[in-house]
């Protein structure tokens, strides 16, 4: 298993896809820098308000988009020039290959979340945001968003494995990300994989998105775990039976 993971990380280092982990943190930093109302507070903290300004677009748009991009790219080499046959000819099982690819996607998303935290700290320092930094809330929010990306990563990986086209899974992902702003206001939001990251980050914060999000975090976690198990199992079974 470690050899398979090392191979995946080597391919990532040789590619430029890892540079995409900087895209969302940069946009988040721009949102935070150009947000001019420094008097607004959430729970008595300007840091909390600054975080919501910076992280809302990240969780709503960029995090699900990047999940789809990473999942599609992680299968790109194998779809080219009989790469799957060459990889599976090695003494590794299909389940090891599939799990290693999913872990690689989640690692890239984890790095993205860390960089969002760094961008918040930098912008807060530049703008001179007063008060104590809400470490507990911010770390919990970013971790929840990362964890809630797992079902979408499993779903997008299954799609990327099944379609040889690099563009097709990306197009599907974009199509389903666009309605996010409408879906998060509905009762079906917890069951929509593209909305689960932002819901997990802000689901119990009435100040987020003008109070549009108000969902029990426990219920959301149950749905996230259930959907991840379903998508992962379906994708793994398909991959094990797929003719390469």
Automatic annotation (TrEMBL):
Q: Which residues cross the membrane?
A: 17-34, 54-77, 98-126, 170-189, 209-239
Would the keyword Acyltransferase be found if you checked this record's keyword annotation? no
Keywords attached to this Swiss-Prot or TrEMBL record, sorted alphabetically, are:
Membrane, Transmembrane, Transmembrane helix
- Which domain of life does the UniProt lineage start with? Bacteria
- Is GTP-binding one of the keywords? no
Its name, as the record gives it, is Membrane protein
């Amino acid at each position: 298993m470690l050899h398979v993971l090392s191979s995946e990380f080597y391919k990532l280092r040789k590619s430029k896809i890892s540079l995409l982990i900087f895209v969302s943190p940069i946009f988040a930093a721009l949102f935070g820098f150009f947000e001019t109302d420094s008097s607004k507070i959430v729970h008595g903290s300007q840091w909390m308000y600054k975080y919501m300004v910076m992280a809302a677009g990240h969780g709503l748009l960029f995090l699900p988009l990047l999940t789809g991009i990473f999942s599609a790219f992680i299968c790109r080499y194998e779809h080219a020039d009989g790469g799957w046959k060459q990889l599976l000819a090695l003494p590794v099982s299909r389940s090891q290959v599939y799990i290693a690819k999913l872990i690689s996607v989640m690692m890239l998303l984890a790095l993205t979340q860390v960089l969002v935290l760094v961008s918040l700290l930098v912008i807060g320092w530049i703008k001179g945001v007063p008060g104590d930094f809400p470490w507990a809330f911010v770390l919990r929010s970013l971790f929840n968003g990362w964890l809630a990306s797992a079902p979408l990563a499993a779903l997008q990986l299954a799609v990327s494995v099944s379609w040889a086209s690099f563009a097709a899974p990306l197009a599907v992902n974009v199509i389903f990300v666009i309605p996010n702003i409408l879906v998060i206001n509905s009762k079906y939001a917890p069951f929509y994989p593209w909305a689960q990251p932002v819901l997990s980050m802000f689901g119990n914060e009435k100040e987020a998105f003008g109070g549009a999000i108000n969902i029990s975090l426990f219920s959301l976690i149950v749905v996230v775990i259930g959907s991840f198990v379903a998508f992962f199992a379906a994708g793994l079974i398909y991959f094990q039976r797929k003719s390469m």
